[in-house]
Amino acid sequence: MNRTITNNETQFLFEFCRKHYVYHYDLQVELVDHLASSIEEQWMEKPELSFENALWNSFRKFGISGFSKIKEQKQKELRKKYNRLLWKYLFDFFSWPKIVMTFAFTTVLATLFKWIENDLWIIVPYFGAMTIFLVFYYYRIYPTHYKIGKINGKKFMLLEQLQGAQFMTMLFIQVPIQIPNFWNISKASFIQSNVGIIFISLLIIVFTIVLLGQLLYLPEKIKEHFSEQFPEFAV
Fold it and tell me: Does residue 18 contact residue 28 with C-beta atoms inside 8 Å?
């Protein structure tokens, strides 16, 4: 009968990962599974091999950098995964029939820029409304619908992606400060041309779509994936 990892040995592997600076539970699960499989493979050939020696044989395969390279690779994979999801969200908006709605909003905004002589009468209310939405989002929507804090003291790399998706919020808060600069730029002849007005209008609409994707779409997907992978921690 082949030797298998016991529950106590599994807990030891989790503690081993923590001692080697792997603090995210989702990454610990992957590493523990990898280490356990490697140890059991060694036991198939050498059943008399001690657990400790088999563990160190497995750990040495990670090289001098230990688990740090695996951690960096996992973070990179997660960033790529959710960047692809954001691009998918954007492509959906720029495909039929949603692209009609995008160009409709662009046309309305461009028309307002042409009709209203002072552009600030459009820009200030727009960014003011978006800033109010961000405040409401940060204090009501995000904590209620998306935020997942530390669960039983555990950290999750996946949830750090959720926090990263909110970084756009901090950038957007700086936008109203740039309104005077935008006002000066808008005096340029290109901005005052029909092509320039359409370009600026489209830029504002696209910026809004990206912002909503960062604040609503990505958090929803991340929380959904978290619930699938760790249903015992999903709240």
Answer: yes
